[in-house]
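=== RUN LOG ===
request id: a7f3
mode: sequence -> structure
chains: 1
length: 335
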Amino acid sequence: MLLVRPVLAALGGVDRVPPAFWAATDLTPELVADGDARISPAQFCVAWAELIRITGNPQVALAIARVTPPGAFGVVEYVCRAAPTLGDALRQWVRYLNLLDDAVVVGIVDDEDDAERACIRVVVESEAPAPASHELCFALLAMQARELVAGPFRVAAVDFTHRAPGDGAAAAAAYRAWFDAPVRFGAEHTQLVVTKAALAAALKTADPNLAAILSRHADELRARDPGGPPLTAQIRRILRTALRDDRGHVDLVARQVGMTARSLQRRLKDEGTSFQALREDVRRELANRYLDDDLSIAEISFLLGFSEPSAFFRAFKRWTGLTPVEARSRLAAAR
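=== RESULT ===
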């Protein structure tokens, strides 16, 4: 979700986003406020297209780069800043990029035409490409490298597979000025090219102790299962808390994500599930956890939002083929 926030900032912030943007992207303020939520590649693509349409600025990526503050991309950015060299920082970025965007794969490869240069290249493009997001990414990378490298830094070249935005000649000039390097549109690859000597340059912000801490945290985040498509994952997270307070009803959960119950059901159907199926799945997951924690059957029934323990007994038998008591005995024997 962090990657879509610069788009919202360029529109003046969440409170000033035009209704047409929410309608076109099928996003909500509540969804974008959820730091753990994911949006689909199609939503991300449409968000950028709507930003360009609303602002009338096809080069808006450069405008965003100018005002993006340090730390805007969370742990992924900070783990890069703590790396010892620019090359190490870029390798960390490639390693943890999926925490920000799991639709695109980026790699660091040798330049086929020059053994002294390396390319930060998009090796797998999103199924719904958002070209301006690549422009923003490379613009920020170049800007931060100039600030963080302990010495002069220059980009060798920049290539984009998409066409130049807006007026081709003017756009090419604007991008050449930003990168202070040759920029090609309609190229074979989307990539930022640097010298291998630049990759070896030390960073002013290098901090090995902090880098180790941040890497462990990023590894933990990367190991987590996002839980499925964007809305499905978000509803799972809400239900894990809402069930305990008897708020696990479709209308109440829908309200938390800024939707009507009908819209929520429609969106979940588009993601191949339903609210009832998610609630049952979360209840089953929590039931096993609570049984292993030695909570009483009455407590578990209450925490899962069942009207009475007998209703929980019947549901658990349906889910597992065992009664809660039998399941608890098996868990105890397996310890």
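=== NOTES ===
The mean pLDDT is 90.
The domain at 230-334 is CATH 1.10.10.60 (Arc Repressor Mutant, subunit A).
=== END ===
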